[in-house]
Protein: LPXTG-motif cell wall anchor domain-containing protein
Amino acid sequence: MSYRKRTAALASAAALAGSAVWMAAPVARAEVVDVNYQCKTPIGDKSAVSPIDIKSTKRGDGYRITMSWQKGVSSSPVELGKGAMTPSATIALGGADSGTLSVTGPANDAAIPANTPIKISDLSGTYVPKKSGEVTFTAGVLTIKALGTTTTCTPTNDPGPSLTLDVTAASGGGTSGSAPGGGSGGSGADTGGGLPQTGPEDSAIALGTLGGTVLLAGAAGTLWLTRRHRATQAGR
Structure:
Protein backbone atom coordinates (compact mmCIF):
# COMPACT_ATOMS: atom_id res chain seq x y z
CA MET A 1 0.00 0.00 0.00
CA SER A 2 1.37 3.46 -0.95
CA TYR A 3 2.16 6.12 1.66
CA ARG A 4 -0.84 8.26 0.64
CA LYS A 5 -3.22 5.33 0.81
CA ARG A 6 -1.93 4.32 4.27
CA THR A 7 -2.39 7.90 5.51
CA ALA A 8 -5.96 8.09 4.14
CA ALA A 9 -6.85 4.71 5.65
CA LEU A 10 -5.54 5.78 9.07
CA ALA A 11 -7.53 9.03 9.01
CA SER A 12 -10.70 7.19 7.93
CA ALA A 13 -10.33 4.61 10.68
CA ALA A 14 -9.96 7.36 13.30
CA ALA A 15 -13.07 9.14 12.01
CA LEU A 16 -15.12 5.94 12.00
CA ALA A 17 -13.99 5.11 15.55
CA GLY A 18 -15.06 8.55 16.74
CA SER A 19 -18.47 8.17 15.07
CA ALA A 20 -18.99 4.72 16.60
CA VAL A 21 -18.25 6.04 20.09
CA TRP A 22 -20.65 8.95 19.60
CA MET A 23 -23.49 6.71 18.36
CA ALA A 24 -22.99 4.38 21.35
CA ALA A 25 -24.03 7.12 23.81
CA PRO A 26 -26.51 5.82 26.43
CA VAL A 27 -30.14 6.84 26.05
CA ALA A 28 -31.93 8.89 28.72
CA ARG A 29 -35.60 9.86 28.56
CA ALA A 30 -37.06 12.36 31.01
CA GLU A 31 -40.54 13.82 31.32
CA VAL A 32 -42.46 15.85 33.87
CA VAL A 33 -45.12 13.70 35.58
CA ASP A 34 -48.05 14.93 37.70
CA VAL A 35 -48.01 13.26 41.11
CA ASN A 36 -51.09 13.29 43.33
CA TYR A 37 -49.80 13.36 46.91
CA GLN A 38 -51.96 12.40 49.86
CA CYS A 39 -50.29 13.81 52.97
CA LYS A 40 -50.66 12.69 56.57
CA THR A 41 -50.03 15.79 58.66
CA PRO A 42 -50.22 16.52 62.41
CA ILE A 43 -53.46 18.44 61.79
CA GLY A 44 -55.14 16.00 59.42
CA ASP A 45 -55.01 14.74 55.86
CA LYS A 46 -54.20 17.02 52.94
CA SER A 47 -53.76 16.47 49.22
CA ALA A 48 -51.85 18.26 46.48
CA VAL A 49 -50.81 17.62 42.88
CA SER A 50 -47.31 18.62 41.81
CA PRO A 51 -45.48 18.01 38.54
CA ILE A 52 -42.29 16.08 39.31
CA ASP A 53 -39.12 16.28 37.26
CA ILE A 54 -36.25 13.80 37.74
CA LYS A 55 -32.94 14.39 35.97
CA SER A 56 -29.63 12.56 35.82
CA THR A 57 -26.01 13.63 35.63
CA LYS A 58 -23.32 11.07 34.73
CA ARG A 59 -20.73 10.83 37.47
CA GLY A 60 -18.02 8.20 37.30
CA ASP A 61 -19.62 4.74 37.44
CA GLY A 62 -22.97 6.20 38.51
CA TYR A 63 -25.40 9.07 38.19
CA ARG A 64 -26.35 12.05 40.28
CA ILE A 65 -30.17 11.96 40.42
CA THR A 66 -32.04 15.21 41.13
CA MET A 67 -35.76 15.36 41.90
CA SER A 68 -37.65 18.67 41.51
CA TRP A 69 -41.15 19.80 42.52
CA GLN A 70 -42.79 22.43 40.33
CA LYS A 71 -45.57 23.18 42.82
CA GLY A 72 -45.79 23.27 46.60
CA VAL A 73 -47.31 20.44 48.64
CA SER A 74 -49.04 20.34 52.04
CA SER A 75 -48.96 23.44 54.27
CA SER A 76 -48.45 24.50 57.89
CA PRO A 77 -50.96 26.27 60.16
CA VAL A 78 -48.08 28.38 61.50
CA GLU A 79 -45.19 30.11 59.80
CA LEU A 80 -42.09 27.99 59.28
CA GLY A 81 -39.01 30.09 59.86
CA LYS A 82 -35.85 29.85 57.80
CA GLY A 83 -34.29 26.41 58.24
CA ALA A 84 -37.30 24.99 60.12
CA MET A 85 -38.35 22.50 57.42
CA THR A 86 -36.23 19.60 56.12
CA PRO A 87 -37.44 17.46 53.18
CA SER A 88 -36.45 14.01 51.96
CA ALA A 89 -37.96 11.52 49.54
CA THR A 90 -37.60 8.15 47.89
CA ILE A 91 -37.51 7.28 44.21
CA ALA A 92 -38.74 3.86 43.14
CA LEU A 93 -36.47 1.97 40.75
CA GLY A 94 -37.95 -0.29 38.10
CA GLY A 95 -37.05 -2.16 34.93
CA ALA A 96 -33.61 -3.74 35.11
CA ASP A 97 -33.12 -2.64 38.72
CA SER A 98 -35.34 -2.57 41.80
CA GLY A 99 -35.58 -1.02 45.23
CA THR A 100 -35.54 2.66 46.16
CA LEU A 101 -33.12 5.56 45.95
CA SER A 102 -33.14 8.04 48.85
CA VAL A 103 -32.77 11.71 47.98
CA THR A 104 -32.34 14.62 50.37
CA GLY A 105 -31.79 18.35 50.21
CA PRO A 106 -31.30 21.52 52.25
CA ALA A 107 -33.75 23.03 54.71
CA ASN A 108 -35.91 25.95 53.55
CA ASP A 109 -33.77 29.03 52.88
CA ALA A 110 -36.63 31.48 53.57
CA ALA A 111 -39.61 31.62 55.89
CA ILE A 112 -42.77 29.83 54.70
CA PRO A 113 -45.98 31.74 55.59
CA ALA A 114 -48.79 29.91 57.42
CA ASN A 115 -51.35 28.06 55.30
CA THR A 116 -49.14 28.36 52.21
CA PRO A 117 -48.14 25.39 50.02
CA ILE A 118 -44.66 24.27 51.06
CA LYS A 119 -42.17 24.55 48.20
CA ILE A 120 -39.79 21.61 48.31
CA SER A 121 -36.16 22.29 47.40
CA ASP A 122 -34.44 20.04 44.85
CA LEU A 123 -33.49 16.70 46.38
CA SER A 124 -30.52 14.66 45.19
CA GLY A 125 -28.85 11.30 45.63
CA THR A 126 -26.27 9.18 43.82
CA TYR A 127 -27.24 6.03 41.94
CA VAL A 128 -24.72 3.37 40.89
CA PRO A 129 -26.25 0.68 38.63
CA LYS A 130 -26.23 -2.84 40.02
CA LYS A 131 -27.53 -4.34 36.77
CA SER A 132 -27.30 -3.41 33.11
CA GLY A 133 -30.36 -2.44 31.10
CA GLU A 134 -33.17 0.08 31.12
CA VAL A 135 -33.90 1.47 34.61
CA THR A 136 -36.91 3.67 35.46
CA PHE A 137 -37.12 6.29 38.22
CA THR A 138 -40.56 7.08 39.67
CA ALA A 139 -41.55 9.52 42.41
CA GLY A 140 -42.01 7.82 45.77
CA VAL A 141 -42.82 8.96 49.32
CA LEU A 142 -42.05 12.54 50.35
CA THR A 143 -41.25 13.24 54.02
CA ILE A 144 -41.34 16.72 55.53
CA LYS A 145 -39.96 17.34 59.02
CA ALA A 146 -40.73 20.68 60.68
CA LEU A 147 -41.00 22.00 64.23
CA GLY A 148 -40.65 18.52 65.72
CA THR A 149 -43.41 17.03 63.52
CA THR A 150 -43.35 14.71 60.52
CA THR A 151 -45.61 14.87 57.45
CA THR A 152 -45.63 11.94 55.04
CA CYS A 153 -46.92 12.40 51.48
CA THR A 154 -47.58 9.30 49.37
CA PRO A 155 -48.38 9.24 45.62
CA THR A 156 -51.86 7.78 45.04
CA ASN A 157 -52.27 8.06 41.28
CA ASP A 158 -49.67 5.43 40.34
CA PRO A 159 -47.51 7.96 38.48
CA GLY A 160 -45.36 6.81 35.62
CA PRO A 161 -41.56 7.16 35.55
CA SER A 162 -40.14 10.66 35.38
CA LEU A 163 -36.81 9.30 34.08
CA THR A 164 -35.63 6.27 32.14
CA LEU A 165 -31.94 5.43 31.74
CA ASP A 166 -30.07 2.77 29.79
CA VAL A 167 -27.28 1.87 32.21
CA THR A 168 -24.33 -0.46 32.54
CA ALA A 169 -23.64 -2.16 35.88
CA ALA A 170 -20.66 -0.73 37.70
CA SER A 171 -17.80 -3.11 38.41
CA GLY A 172 -18.24 -4.56 41.88
CA GLY A 173 -21.89 -3.46 42.11
CA GLY A 174 -23.36 -0.61 44.11
CA THR A 175 -23.20 0.07 47.82
CA SER A 176 -25.30 2.28 50.02
CA GLY A 177 -23.92 5.46 51.52
CA SER A 178 -24.18 9.24 51.79
CA ALA A 179 -23.89 11.50 48.79
CA PRO A 180 -22.31 14.96 48.88
CA GLY A 181 -24.42 18.02 49.63
CA GLY A 182 -26.86 16.17 51.86
CA GLY A 183 -27.85 13.63 49.20
CA SER A 184 -28.32 10.11 50.47
CA GLY A 185 -27.73 7.15 48.21
CA GLY A 186 -30.27 4.34 48.18
CA SER A 187 -29.77 1.58 45.64
CA GLY A 188 -26.09 1.65 44.78
CA ALA A 189 -24.96 5.04 46.09
CA ASP A 190 -21.45 6.42 45.92
CA THR A 191 -19.67 9.71 46.50
CA GLY A 192 -18.70 11.30 43.19
CA GLY A 193 -17.71 14.78 42.07
CA GLY A 194 -19.61 17.83 40.81
CA LEU A 195 -22.65 18.42 38.64
CA PRO A 196 -22.20 18.74 34.86
CA GLN A 197 -25.01 18.98 32.27
CA THR A 198 -28.17 17.04 33.13
CA GLY A 199 -30.29 14.70 31.05
CA PRO A 200 -29.32 12.62 27.99
CA GLU A 201 -26.86 15.24 26.69
CA ASP A 202 -24.36 14.58 29.48
CA SER A 203 -23.50 11.06 28.31
CA ALA A 204 -23.41 12.12 24.66
CA ILE A 205 -21.04 14.99 25.45
CA ALA A 206 -18.72 12.77 27.49
CA LEU A 207 -18.60 10.09 24.83
CA GLY A 208 -18.32 12.70 22.09
CA THR A 209 -15.22 13.98 23.87
CA LEU A 210 -13.83 10.44 23.85
CA GLY A 211 -14.56 10.26 20.13
CA GLY A 212 -12.68 13.53 19.68
CA THR A 213 -9.73 12.03 21.55
CA VAL A 214 -9.73 9.10 19.12
CA LEU A 215 -9.69 11.54 16.20
CA LEU A 216 -6.77 13.47 17.72
CA ALA A 217 -4.90 10.22 18.22
CA GLY A 218 -5.46 9.39 14.52
CA ALA A 219 -4.24 12.83 13.49
CA ALA A 220 -1.12 12.42 15.65
CA GLY A 221 -0.41 9.10 13.96
CA THR A 222 -0.79 10.70 10.52
CA LEU A 223 1.63 13.52 11.49
CA TRP A 224 4.18 10.98 12.74
CA LEU A 225 3.98 9.01 9.51
CA THR A 226 4.40 12.20 7.47
CA ARG A 227 7.54 13.22 9.39
CA ARG A 228 8.96 9.72 9.13
CA HIS A 229 8.33 9.65 5.39
CA ARG A 230 10.08 13.01 4.94
CA ALA A 231 13.02 11.89 7.10
CA THR A 232 13.38 8.73 5.01
CA GLN A 233 13.41 10.74 1.77
CA ALA A 234 15.97 13.20 3.22
CA GLY A 235 18.31 10.37 4.18
CA ARG A 236 18.36 8.91 0.71
Observations:
- The CA atoms of residues 78 and 137 lie 34 Å apart.
- The first helix runs from residue 3 to 23.
